[in-house]
Amino acid sequence: MFIDERLITVDDFWSLITQPEYVDRKFELINGVIVEAMSPGLEHGIIMFRLGSKLTFFVDSRDLGVVAGEVDHYLRSDRYNTRRPDIEFISKERLARIQDKSQPVPLMPDLVVEVKSPGNTYEELRQKAAYYLQNGVRIVWLVYPEKRSIIVYKSDTPQFVTLGINDILDGGDVLPGFVLPLKEIFVNI
């Protein structure tokens, strides 16, 4: 029996996932292996919408860039990885470097939010955070609905901070002035 163990490249990945049978499915390329994301539940969607709308209002009212969700990102220097954050902020400076906004983005955002789904493991999310930070993301927020907490990772420090339901999330030097009580994200879920 022959097993094809070759790693999938970003180019092969884009060719595959744009086929009609895969268009409505969510994939990432992680270290040359295609990984399909499970559809999230209602709790995940509520948290994404609440956090995303708060970020969008803040960013738009100050003309800082854009907030988006579920956008494919890759680096030209990394042939074996793509990422699709749940929520992201891209500053005006980085946005100006994106030539075709209808295509996957060839750079990483400034801020990434990943909301844990039942199909995610804690280790997977920590590995995603490490990848993001090693490749240009300045802040990563890992949201844990079942714990009503957010872990904040920053590129300029090896430490992380865990925030609980009674704490306040801030945008650090990426989004100065952005503050959000965690109670507003986790209320009524």
Q: What is the highest CATH level, the class?
A: Alpha Beta
Q: Give the percentage of residues in beta strands.
A: 25-35%
- Biggest beta sheet attributes: 6 strands, mixed
CATH H-level name... which superfamily?
tt1808, chain A
β-strand number: 12
What's the number of helices? 5
Q: Which of globular, elongated, flat, extended, rod-shaped describes the shape?
A: globular
**Share of helix, binned:** 25-40%
Briefly characterize the structure.
The chain has a single domain, classed as tt1808, chain A.
Written description of the protein model:
The chain is α+β, with helices and mostly antiparallel strands and 189 residues long. The protein has a single domain, classed as tt1808, chain A (Alpha-Beta Complex), CATH 3.90.1570.10. Helix content is 26%, strand content 28%. The chain has helices at 10-17, 42-62, 92-95, 122-134, 183-186, and strands at residues 27-30, 33-36, 65-68, 73-74, 82-83, 87-91, 111-115, 139-144, 149-154, 160-163, 168-171, 175-181. A hairpin with a 3-residue loop joins strand 11 (168-171) and strand 12 (175-181). The chain is globular and about 45 Å long. The termini are far apart. 28% of the residues are buried.
